[in-house]
Amino acid sequence: MNVTKNQIDDLNATLKIELNKEDYATRVDDALKGYQKKAVIDGFRKGKTPFGIIKKMYGKAVLVEEINKLIGESLTKFIQDNDLNILGEPLPNEENQKELDLNGEHFEFIYDIALAPAMNVKVSKREKVPYYIIKVDDEMIDKQVEALCKQNGELLPVDVIEGTEYVKGELIELDENGKAKEGGIHNEEASLSIYHIKDEDSRKAFVGAKEGSEVIFNPSKSFPNKTDFAALMGISKEEAEKVDGNFCFIVKEIKRYIDAEVNQALFDKVYGEGKVNGVEEFRAKVKEELTNQFKGHSEYRFTIDAREKMVRKNEDVVLPEAFLKRWLVATNEGMTQEAVDKDFDSYRDEFKWQLIKTDLIKENGLKVEDEDMKAVGREIAAAQLQQYGLYGLSNEQLDGFADRLLQDEKQRANLYDRALENKVFAVLKDGFKLEDQEISMDDFSKLFERK
């Protein structure tokens, strides 16, 4: 076997692979013997079919399969041994590749490769990048306090229905005369949310009702979702499809969700007993948590600005665009040449950024350890839990979530990529001069509207 490289220009080359019989014959024979052991062919016991018959039946298919494997191995080895920094993967040459003759013994394959250009990855403190710090004002704190009050409220008994309550009672199906329907639906443990009633007339019928009140309404109009309707009736969804008409609801219990008050009980519930004392400390703690939360926003914006800065530093770098367009079409199912041509500006920037990252990783010897991935796992878990109002969890509390992510192969790969990218941006953050700019949340959001 022989692999030779032909340099076309600074960015393009071809690799020619020549295979002789001795390169693939043993592999093909071994593969055919494997087929022979498993083959079940009429007239022969399993594994006893003569080798000549197996070769006649499967020989060419196995030859193609083994040659393809050998080509892949040869390309990978040559690229690694010669430390070639390529873009994409090798593509079959469209001009000089000879038609494959499976009756011959000598084969030649020609592949196009694209060579990565040198990128400028030097950074210095003379280069400035904005670092936006979101200002936490009283309005933000007020909204967060309001949210915490809602999250930590509770259902409390009330005397009268005003329109948002949860109600329990007895549900009785009525006939056309407004009397209890004989053999009709009767649910003594029915419950519903007034707030979620879709029919305005039915909602109004409940407003003002008290314990013991009888409310006449049409549940099928009130709850058009048949799953909710069936749950109210205490019947199956299939049975609910056939039910219509008025029902009587005898109110037995009324509860309303009451937001928590801003007092010590709330402080203890949110942050732990005695950890925060008084309204001023509570608001200060809320501000601290919002500030920490917004650091993630600031970091994310920095990654955008730093990446743009690095790509602009390399705007004059030329890429092997003809090859890359071919590669994008060849490796993306459904991708058309027209679509690639239309969007290639964004593809070009992405290719450059990937090259910049690769060079930064090499020049700075960046490596990812398990603890780096675990730290990213904690960040992901913390962000997810914050959506449910759980803030300020310790690393020990988040470790369980992070460990579960690491055990999943796909998630582990994602954590590795994110941890490596974090290290890349840490290098840029340390290298550039950051210009701190305090900004409102509204103005910060507008930064992402720029075209």
Describe the structure.
By secondary structure, the protein is an alpha+beta fold. The protein folds into three domains: 2-115, Trigger factor ribosome-binding domain (Alpha-Beta Plaits, 2-Layer Sandwich); 128-144 and 268-449, Orthogonal Bundle (Trigger factor, domain 2), CATH 1.10.3120; 154-258, Chitinase A, domain 3, CATH 3.10.50.30. It is 50% helix and 18% strand. It contains 15 helices and eleven strands. It has helices at 21-38, 51-81, 138-151, 200-206, 219-222, 226-233, 237-240, 264-271, 278-313, 321-331, 337-363, 370-386, 395-407, 409-431, 441-446; strands spanning 2-7, 12-19, 86-92, 107-115, 128-134, 154-157, 166-173, 186-193, 214-217, 247-258, 433-439. The strands form three sheets. Strands 6, 7, 8, 9 and 10 form a five-stranded antiparallel sheet that branches. A four-stranded antiparallel sheet has the order 1-2-4-3. It has a two-stranded parallel ribbon with strand order 5-11. A hairpin with a 4-residue loop joins strand 1 (2-7) and strand 2. Helix 3 (138-151) crosses helix 9, helix 10 crosses helix 11 and helix 12 crosses helix 13 (395-407). The longest helix is centred in the middle third of the chain and has 36 residues, at 278-313. It is extended, with a radius of gyration of 35 Å. The mean pLDDT is 92.
